[in-house]
């Protein structure tokens, strides 16, 4: 896909970075350079903010139907270019081509959903306390927004933020991960093609996110920050945002439990565990990180899960037979290896995998660990890799307490045929997203987000629109009868 010679997209124009410098994009399956893109700096961010600020009033006042049409056309074009976009994603991020195709469909669904929601930002009339007054409630766009997105879902995490921003009338600047900038530039090209007005969207690629983001954090005209990434960085952004009271949405780290009760459909639980653990080779904030299985069925579940993961083929995601791609970089491989080694030292037993293969590429094989307990790093940190850590439990009360024993609260999964238990766990598990007999709960029309240290705010659904809207009320006096 042509990306305007790998330039920055600022204010509706393709430009070089102010510094004139570039950085390499690496294919994690081959460790080869696949592109060079501009390395944006503070001056580029200032230019993007100025362009967004200049476009803010006209975009906010544009008819909702016009904003909707642009989003819907962008969704349509994204679907039409699925093969190009998916190949680009696989080359820069590593996930198998079928998963990349699925992500493009997922990304387009956010543009479509928010394009439809753009026409449904309703106000309200509230009964006043006086006969000669009326109280009117209106919603207006919060203003210039900055979206900081991760590498693991390089298209969907952009559209999940850009969609509601544009739908509500907010110009938006995107800072994608330096590991996966090509998908972001491709999305910018789509919006250019469908007629998005100049200044409403900018995309800045850069290897120094700190200086770039600091410019936006210090600029009062930037009124909204949306970030997906680590809890540590999220806390820093929240602190910085307080200086000018910017609106903040944070989707941070997870520590997802996957709970299997003895009355569950074990085959369904295993197939869902494969998806919840191995989607994007485990590099997902909602990936199953701790798999709790009731003791009476832990042996059978472990055997079935091991067989399912052993059947998966690892390799370059462009190979149609591959279902397990590489991790994103060498640091990711080192972290997974450290977690596995720590677990083995503390008594875990390797049922599958556990050793990195030789050769090029940041690969780590599907791995199953038995006899895991909470003393091990793999239960205390996000592994972000293809390791299924299995822990046995005895009672419902026990597993709820163990599952909740974390400062994270993004996603949790549980499998049972007991309807009462479904409701009890929905109420008692301290997580923002719950998959009850469902390992794939994410969808554009549902409110995605966590509690505790997993973040603030929601993305997707009509709640995602609220994140970009200010509520104002007008007390209208002088009404005579």
TrEMBL record:
Entry keyword annotation includes Oxidoreductase = yes
Name any one Pfam family assigned in the record: Aldedh
Q: Does the keyword Nuclease apply?
A: no
* Coiled-coil residue spans: 65-92
Q: Signal sequence: where?
A: none
Residues annotated as domain Aldehyde dehydrogenase: 14-474
InterPro entries, A to Z: Ald_DH/histidinol_DH, Ald_DH_C, Ald_DH_N, Aldehyde_DH_dom, Aldehyde_DH_Superfamily
- Alphabetical list of SUPFAM superfamilies matching this protein: ALDH-like
Which keywords annotate this record? Coiled coil, Oxidoreductase
Can you say what this protein is called?
Answer: Succinate-semialdehyde dehydrogenase (NADP(+))
Q: Which organism is it from?
A: Sulfobacillus thermotolerans
Gene responsible for this protein: gabD
């Amino acid at each position: 896909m042509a990306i305007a010679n790998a330039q920055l997209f600022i204010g509706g124009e393709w430009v070089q970075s102010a510094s004139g410098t570039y950085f390499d994009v690496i294919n994690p399956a081959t460790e080869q350079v696949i592109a060079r893109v501009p390395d944006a700096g503070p001056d580029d961010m200032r230019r993007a903010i100025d362009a967004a600020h200049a476009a803010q009033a006209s975009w906010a006042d544009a008819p909702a139907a016009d904003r909707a049409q642009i989003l819907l056309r962008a969704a349509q074009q994204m679907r039409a270019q699925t093969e190009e976009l998916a190949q680009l994603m696989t080359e820069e991020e590593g996930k198998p081509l079928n998963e990349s195709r699925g992500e493009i469909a997922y990304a387009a669904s956010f543009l479509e959903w928010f394009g439809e929601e753009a026409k449904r930002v309703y106000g309200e009339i509230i009964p006043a306390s006086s006969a000669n007054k009326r109280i009117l409630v209106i919603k207006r766009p919060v203003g210039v927004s900055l979206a900081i997105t991760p590498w693991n879902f390089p298209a969907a995490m952009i559209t999940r933020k850009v969609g509601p921003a544009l739908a509500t009338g907010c110009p938006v600047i995107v800072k994608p991960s330096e590991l996966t900038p090509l998908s972001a530039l491709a999305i910018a090209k789509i919006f250019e093609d469908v007629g998005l007005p100049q200044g409403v969207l900018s995309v800045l690629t850069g290897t120094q996110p700190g200086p770039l983001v600091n410019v936006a954090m210090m600029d009062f005209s930037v009124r909204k920050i949306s970030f997906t990434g680590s809890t540590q960085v999220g806390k820093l952004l929240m602190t910085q945002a307080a200086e000018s009271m910017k609106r903040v949405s944070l989707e941070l780290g997870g520590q997802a439990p996957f709970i299997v009760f003895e009355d569950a459909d074990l085959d369904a639980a295993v197939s869902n565990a494969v998806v919840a653990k191995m989607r994007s080779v485990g590099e997902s904030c909602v990936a199953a990180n701790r798999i709790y299985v009731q003791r009476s069925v832990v042996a059978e579940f472990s055997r079935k899960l091991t067989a399912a993961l052993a059947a998966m083929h690892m390799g370059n995601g462009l190979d149609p037979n591959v279902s397990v791609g590489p991790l994103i970089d060498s640091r990711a491989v080192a972290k997974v290896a450290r977690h596995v080694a720590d677990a083995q030292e503390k008594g875990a037993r390797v049922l599958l995998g556990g050793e990195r293969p030789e050769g090029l590429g940041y690969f780590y094989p599907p791995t199953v660990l038995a006899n895991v307990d909470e003393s091990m790093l793999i239960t205390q940190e996000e592994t972000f890799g293809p390791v299924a850590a299995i822990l046995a439990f005895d009672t419902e009360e026990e597993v709820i307490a163990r599952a909740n024993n974390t400062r994270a609260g993004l996603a949790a999964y549980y499998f049972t045929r007991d309807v009462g238990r479904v409701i009890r766990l929905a109420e008692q598990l301290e997580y923002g997203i719950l998959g009850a007999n469902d390992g794939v709960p994410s969808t554009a029309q549902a409110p995605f987000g966590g509690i505790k240290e997993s973040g603030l705010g929601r993305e997707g659904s009509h709640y995602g629109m609220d994140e970009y809207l200010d509520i104002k009320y007008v007390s209208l006096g002088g009404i005579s009868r």
